[in-house]
Amino acid sequence: MLTLTSPVETWAHRLAAGAKLAALAAVTTGLFLLTSPWALVGSFTAAVVLYLTGGGRFALTGLRQLAPLWPFVVIVGLWHLWTGDMTGGAVILLRMVTAVALANFVTMTTRLSDMLAVFERLARPLAPILPPRRLALAFALVIRFIPVMLERMGQIRQSWSARSPRRPRWRVMVPATLAALDDADRVAEALRARGGAG
Predict the structure, then answer these.
(1) Minimal CA–CA distance to 187: which of 141, 148, 154, 134?
(2) Which of left, alpha, beta for 84 (phi over 0: left; psi -120 to 50: alpha)?
(3) Model pTM score
(4) 23-41 pLDDT, tens per residue?
(5) Angle 56-66/86-108 helices, nearest 10 degrees?
(6) CA atoms of 122 and 135, how far apart (whole Å)
(7) What are the residue ranges spanned by the domains of the chain?
(8) CB-based contact 118:18 (threshold 8 Å)
């Protein structure tokens, strides 16, 4: 839980965490400035090529991490199909998938300790109010938890579908919340075992 870094070593592992996070912020902002579906198709293609530079195994791992997005893709796609705004739907879906893919790429190629160091430097001006180490840890854990929780939601939905023909809808919220609390407890125990947040 504390690390989602890929064991497959790539060229991106050797880049500075700060540079990768800055590039991610800039590119994600750029994605929301693009309004042409074809430009976004090009961006998604570039993200795919980026994964492929790490090799087949690395790319497959990244692809699997995008699997939990399929319910959102279906919902957004059906809504825009119903409203007749297929172009708008394509733009939203391409932005979402590309942004999550790029964020996963940074997560897979950056150690938690390196990410923590970046956030800690950025949080230093807030030192009189809040300890930078704790704030940095909170930011880093949020980034780490997002793909994990998406995957957990997908597992819960699959478990529901295997037991009932009805759609899960709101019924997965309770087990998902309990799973999140359980994961939080495990992470807290691991942090305490490693000396705490500092």
Answers:
(1) 141
(2) left
(3) 0.69
(4) 999 999 999 898 888 999 9
(5) 130
(6) 10
(7) 1-110, 113-198
(8) yes
